[in-house]
Amino acid sequence: MGTVPASELMVQVALAIGLASLVLAGGMVLRILAMRRRRLRRQARVDRFLEVWRPRVYEAALGEPPQALPPLAAEDDVTFLLLWNQVQEGLRGPPRAGLNKLARTVGARIIALRRLDDADPTARLLSLRTLGHFGQVEDFERVAGYLDDRSPPIALAAARALARLDPRRAADALWPRLLSRRDWSMAQVATTFQEVEAARIGEALLQALPTLSPPDLQRLLPLVSLLDDARADVVVATLLATAQDPDNLAGALRHARSPALLDDVVRLARHPEWPVRTQAAAALGRLGDPSNRRLLIELLSDPQWWVRYRAAQALAAGRFGSREALGALSEVLPDRFARDMLAHVLAEGAR
Amino acid sequence: MPGGRRTVVPMTAPPPSPSILVVEDDPTIAGLVGMLFRKEGFATTVLRDGRAALAHVAREAPASAAILDVMLPYADGLAVTQAIRADARWAGVPVVVLSARTAPVDQERARQAGASEVMAKPFHPQQLLAAVRRLSGGGGA
């Protein structure tokens, strides 16, 4: 028996590798085709479902008498929850009663409770939203368990649902997490509580104010929008008087609503950090009086473009003279950058 | 029929049903608004983007009223409102702008573009219906 030459062996190995690659590639193509086929079939099923159910959900929302409903297959229940939530969230007022009646008929609450621990995050999210809209207070504890979910969208969906189920308890359950969950969007939390128990969350913010670190304060600042003007002033005034961090100062200036804060705003218009001066200029446009005109003209010559731009916008906001008077001013300012910026903003306003 | 008298019954066409143009890219809201007005006897045209709306305004006869979303693909609802106001045939059509952004500055922008009314999203179906009826001088069943 002769030995196989090395070159022959190499050729055989190469052939085997080529063949294996071909088989693998073929397998992948088949798999992709199967996935595509499955996706198309799933989409076709969703389309068929929506064709049948959309009119029924719309009719329920518009207060039409309920019609005989087709059975809801388990495979379609997430699609139903999606459709039902979309309609719920698109409408306000009495339509919700009709939608809840429809949901009761198809057992949507039971579906939502069953899907809360689904592997699919979309199903979990929709289940939380459904339970919130459904408004059965006995679901509070079950939903509250998801406030500590690692995924911020799931946790925030739970917060939103809790705010609908029992706003007062929701606000109390939420506050400690607002401090610990650095991955939550405070703007989203502020929107959630805008209409319910805003004062409770705002009050907690007010009480915690002295103990908050600058980064926490910065993160929680959007919640100032939940406070009435007088309380918001207290938070903003405290920050303007005590904060050292330029981001905190700029953030507080963004929320300044009352002329009572003007002294601080004027002081900060000369802050060494330009983001603070920028927000001070913008605040002067909202709150300032004619006595601040000189300061704004001074800011028009600031080395930073954004400060000059906000100062020009503030001047053009209507509190500091007519457009004609500002147009005349833009021609006589000694600083070329100030002249250009004021003319630029006046031209923007004329468009 | 000699000597007989023929009675001539004047043929009058039934009044045309009021029509409404709905421009909304969210299929759920579009479907709901469409059904709301169809149920009330309006002939309804639902379009999904600003470009189709601009083409519709340029080509078709004016509707009794238009309901426009602000955020639309290709051309926003305010651009469509301006096009409606600039078109001699459509200029008088009441426009209700439906928008999730209802801060005073956004409302002012919509009114400057020519909107007759700005309504917040989520919307109240009966309030939308009442607004369209009031602005278009009645209509519907």
Structure description:
The complex is a heterodimer of chains A (351) and B (141). Chain A is mostly helical and 351 residues long. Chain A has 19 helices and no strands. Chain A has helices at residues 6-61, 77-90, 95-106, 108-115, 121-134, 140-144, 152-165, 167-180, 186-193, 198-208, 214-220, 229-242, 246-254, 262-268, 274-287, 293-299, 305-315, 323-332, 336-350. In chain A, helix 13 runs parallel beside helix 15, helix 15 packs parallel to helix 17 (305-315) and helix 16 packs antiparallel against helix 17 (305-315). Chain A is extended. The N and C termini of chain A lie far apart (94 Å). Chain B has 141 residues and is of the alpha/beta class. Chain B has helices spanning 27-39, 50-59, 77-86, 104-113, 125-135; strands at 19-23, 43-47, 65-69, 95-99, 117-120. Chain B has a five-stranded parallel beta sheet with strand order 2-1-3-4-5, with helices on both faces. In chain B, helix 2 (50-59) packs parallel to helix 3. The N and C termini of chain B lie far apart (42 Å). The interface between A and B is medium-sized, with 17 and 15 residues.
